[in-house]
Amino acid sequence: MENNKEILLETGTNELEILEFFIDEADRHGKPQPCHFGVNVAKVMQVIESPNLEPPESAPHPCFMGTIPLRGHILPVLDLSNWLGMDRVKKEDDVVIVTEFSQAVTGFLVSGVTEIHRVGWPEVIPPQGMLNSFDQNTIIGLVDIHEHFIQLLDLEHILSDLDPTSTLAAWTSDVQAARQLRALVADDSATIRAMLKNNLEAANFDIRLTNTGEDALLKLRALKEQASEEGKTIRDYLDIIIADIEMPRMDGFTLTKNIKEDPELSQLPVILYSSIITDELRHKGESVRADAQVAKPDMDKMAALAIELLGERGIEVRS
Q1: What is the distance between the alpha carbons of residues 134 and 142, in angstroms, rounded to a whole number?
Q2: How far apart are CA 111 and CA 61, in angstroms?
Q3: Distances (CA, A) of 66 to 26, 91, 93, 171
Q4: Partners of 23 in beta bridges
Q5: Residue pLDDT, tens place only, 121-168
Q6: Beta-carbon contacts of residue 169 (< 8 Å; ≥ 6 apart)
């Protein structure tokens, strides 16, 4: 199976496509019981048969199975069940899901794939309060497809946890605005919100944080109403909006589309960011009139980009 990235959902419909897969976990009798997971199809290159690797003794982590050549890449293969702490029942027809995001190609060993589901982001249940045995930072949300729940995995969190040197934890800012700028940040990850807050505050930004695109839009509409009552414009309260693309309830594309279709809110520039932003997919953000897009490996440049974008609009930002 290969993912043809030319076949894409219309942008701004608040939908995504999920590849459902499963890991057969041994019950107390040793019998396989499928546990269902999902990943954004936009991150999947293809699904291949398992190369039946045996972990090398020098493996940097117990889930590392080794590498294989694939389409010009040296593909690291990770046993996803091992990382999740599951007792997987091994089979001859196990498969590897080959993903591409954050400028990295990685294979994840699983028991099998099921099908692709098209769902709306409002159907994605935030993981808070849900009963599961995994770190909630690993689970973006849950989707009820009636027969069972699909747990959407945050593969970026998994990779950054395995290799802390490649994470965004060392975000710094070597720029600073001449006056305090005001940014609204929307991201469902508490970790990313905190890191963006640190990066932007170091550059002289005042930050308002929201968990989802839906929360961000409600806050923007409240500010717009306040501005109208006080005879001001939205720019008297806010300078820029910075949003993740993948969020439960409302994604960043749909948030941006709503902002740009509003005569008052459209005065504010919007920066979108995600691990799925590539040269091939950048047109999706452009179609909803995002002012800039940032791939997650370049997130440490967020403050500098925001200052540059505002400066281009004639706003005094430099000393």
Answers
A1: 13
A2: 20
A3: 24, 18, 18, 30
A4: 35
A5: 888 887 765 545 555 568 888 899 888 999 999 888 788 777 655 544
A6: 160, 195
> pTM here?
0.78
How many alpha carbons lie under 13 Å from residue 165 in its C-beta half-sphere? 0
Mean per-residue pLDDT, 64-85: 90
Q: Is 162 exposed, middle or buried (0-12, 13-18, 19+ CB in 10 A)?
A: middle
Per DSSP, the residues of 273-306 read: EETT--TTTHHHHHHTT-SEEEEGGGGGGHHHHH
The span from the CA of 278 to the CA of 284, in Å, is: 10
Confidence of residue 185 (pLDDT cuts 50, 70, 90): very high
**128: its two tokens:** 């808070």
What is the bridge-based pairing of β-strands 64-70 and 73-79?
Answer: antiparallel
Helices (H), the chain: 80-84, 155-162, 190-201, 213-229, 252-260, 282-287, 302-312
Tell whether the model's pLDDT for residue 272 goes beyond 90: yes
Q: Evaluate the CA torsion angle 164, 165, 166, 168 in order and state its sign.
A: positive
Evaluate whether 97 touches 155 at the Cβ level (below 8 Å). no
Domains of the chain: 15-164 (2.40.50.180), 168-312 (3.40.50.2300)
The answer to whether residues 81 and 65 touch, using CB atoms and an 8 Å cutoff, is: no
Question: Do residues 184 and 220 touch, judged by C-beta distance below 8 A?
Answer: yes
3-state helix vs strand vs coil in the chain, percent to 5: 30, 35, 40
Cβ–Cβ under 8 Å, residues 270 and 291: yes
How do residues 282-299 score in pLDDT, each as one tens digit? 888 999 999 999 987 788
Query: pLDDT: is 136 or 315 the higher one?
Result: 315
